[in-house]
Design brief:
alpha+beta, 12 strands, about 230 residues, 3-stranded antiparallel β-sheet
């Protein structure tokens, strides 16, 4: 599903359920990273990296370990940009040659309302106003969860370009729904702090897309070269 939100230059691989959760799939260098984690976390870690290695193969890159760097961000092979995500029963990885895109971010969440009290901590006043309008117009979509997912995708695209934290309050996201019955659309994230320099050009907003299907909320952001 996630590939529907990404340009053709991006290779996306996903797995469902218990697929790819066998920890024997981990490379020796990866095992210490989750040695103390609970079983569920180890399985998610394993499956996401299995997806990433299949994506590498599709790009013609030899499969290799995906270690973690600053703030837990994945460290990709030279010449690649990518993102991974996981939630209950779903894991995915998306990779692209760095010559084709400056950065990307993907996120998957269960299509269910956020836990009580969370929305107010992630949504700006303007986002809360738009949330009320969207919920009235398309009540079948959990717009609060979708906003959370979009902010996660924005952060995943932001961090490789800046190596800096981006708070929920530092990007104002406007979600839009595509016409018709399909639960899909786009979004624009206006950065409220100085954006990254991409090819010497300051980027002050990210563009993304979203999809709700099979009990999941999926979002993706791509940052093109100028």
């Amino acid at each position: 599903m996630i590939e529907e939100l990404l340009p053709e230059s991006v290779v996306a691989v996903e797995s469902h359920g218990d697929q790819d959760t066998d920890e024997a799939l981990l490379y020796p260098q990866e095992r210490p990273l989750v040695a103390r984690a609970v079983s569920k976390r180890r399985q998610e870690f394993t499956a996401a990296r299995a997806c990433a290695r299949r994506a590498m193969e599709k790009l013609g890159v030899p499969p290799q370990p995906v270690l973690t760097g600053e703030r837990g961000a994945p460290v990709w092979p030279a010449g690649l940009a990518g993102s991974m995500t996981h939630c209950e029963g779903y894991r995915a990885a998306a990779l692209v040659r760095a010559t084709d895109l400056a950065s990307l971010g993907i996120d998957a969440e269960p299509h269910a309302p956020l836990p009580e009290g969370v929305f107010g901590t992630i949504a700006l006043p303007a986002e809360q106003d738009r949330h009320r309008e969207l919920s009235a117009a398309r009540p079948a979509v959990c717009w609060d969860r979708l906003l959370f997912s979009a902010k996660e995708s924005v952060y995943k695209a932001w961090f490789p370009l800046t190596r800096a934290w981006l708070d929920f309050s530092e990007a104002d996201i406007e979600l839009t729904a595509a016409p018709g019955q399909d639960a899909r659309g786009g979004f624009r994230a206006r950065l409220l702090v100085p954006g990254p320099l991409v090819g010497g050009v300051r980027v002050d907003a990210f563009e993304g897309s979203w999809l709700v299907r099979d009990g999941l909320v999926l979002s993706a952001v791509t940052v093109p070269h100028p």
